[in-house]
Amino acid sequence: MKKESVESRKWNQIHIYDLQRRQTRKNKSQTSNSPKRTGKPRLRSNEGQRYTKTITCPENFVLSSNHEEVVKVIDDIRNSAERQRNERVYIDFRTIRRLSPGAALILVAELDCWNSRPMRGRLRPVDLNEWNENIRSQLNDMGFFELLKVNSNELANLYFGKTSSVYVRFRTGSRVEGQSVDNLRTADLDPYVSVPNRHLLFAAVTEAMTNVVHHAYSGNLEHSSRKHWWLSASHNVERKEIRILIYDRGVGIPESLPRKWKEQLRHLLPDTFTHDDSKMIKAAHDLSRSITQLPFRGHGLDRDIRKYVEKIDCDATYRVVSGNGEYTYRVKSSKKPIENLRNFKRPLRGTLIEWRLAHQ
Amino acid sequence: MNSKRETKIINIAVDFSEYPAGRFVEDGDYNGTTFREQHLIPALENHAKVCVVFDGVAGFGSSFLEEAFGGLIHRGNLSKNFLDEHMQITTNEPELQIFVELAQRFIDDADKLKLAHAC
Fold it and tell me: What is the DSSP annotation of A7-39?
């Protein structure tokens, strides 16, 4: 049985490779004989021929101001990647005019996972010259085209816009990698905008990675094949601002809270509380308890991850988007922290953490 | 015959890693469990005094510090009195002092928890 499945897998890989070769030949003949295509989508999977699904990105691809539409695109991409049927997928990036580093990182993570599925065929960008030059530049900085294995000659012919906010190449891993955090700071942030208290930033980000390893892929995702985190950042020299971001595709903070603890809350608080993800995210920080229920564990979320913004001399905001909720914690000029809670209709299937630091 | 040498200095950045992070072995190569089991406990067993130096590290997450130092009590079965007498945690870098205090607090918390469970 085992031998059979290995052979079957080999056949599929060869089959996909064959489709790719045939597709390449077809593309070559199209470019030589037919006029330039217009109005076609920007990113294409080369899987099969039977069905075609088009995913159109919104003009405003910023999670904080257009959560529902951005998450819908992310969901569509993930659902297409997970479907086994023989379908061709087009993702239209031409429409994007604004892109936040958080949304870009989530996009990168989804495409990274897509490419890790050998049965799905690799995504490849088309008509790159029609993408907005600033968006192309920001995605390029984040490592988007490298991820999609775009030929460097193809990129050399394109103009990349200059944006005040520069994105940083993403890192990914499945374990806690302190060196990746320090490398992000020394190579990609400090030369442009200095990172306040580097030791505490290291503590915050490695602790967030530890939480991904321990909790993010529990429950229904216990057997998930790609239990990764994705880390990136951005810097804006004019505004003296940096953002550091970490994302996982796990169950989300509200879902990872201990069941026993949630049941206790239901007895104590109005029913709406435990169905309100933003309040659950806040509670997870305030009560410093983790799924393990052990008294000496679960303090990192508050002490290291959230409180980092309190311990530095900056206008600093800590933000978490997880499930249906968003929780922000802003500290400005040593004043009392300001918290903000929001809920959305469409859940983000994962957790995005962002530290935004602006030198005063 | 007591053959314990006087003082063992463990400089984490030199003897273990500049990037210590994570709690358990499966978390990563330079986790708190590995540091405790392969460096701290053998040093405490074979030396009269152990001096742990934090200088040169990139930082510490709570998970690493709690597992490495609090774990000496709740997993290693050592007492706070023993650690006060035989172990010193130190740094010359002012920005790392916060982690020295945190490691000490994890030892204190683990001791309190042990006492509460013993009662």
Answer: HHHHHHHHHHHHHHHHHHHHHHHHHHHSPPP-S
